[in-house]
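Researcher: Structure for this, please.
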Amino acid sequence: MGASERTRELSRRRKRHQKLAHLKSKLPKATQSEKLEIVRKLREMTPGAEKLIAEWQLVEAGR
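Model: Predicted structure, token format:
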């Protein structure tokens, strides 16, 4: 019997949180092209990407 949907949902949420933390840690040393790549990955990863892009001050990089 497989894992319940709630367990899978929590696992996906934790993994997404880890990925976001990893991307945020790369920001201080990132070049402009790397910031564009981070913005692209954020948009693919989460529906709240635009809010994160604004909070992380990547608005200029995402245009």
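Researcher: Any notable elements?
Model: The mean pLDDT is 91. Residues 5-26 form the longest helix (22 residues).
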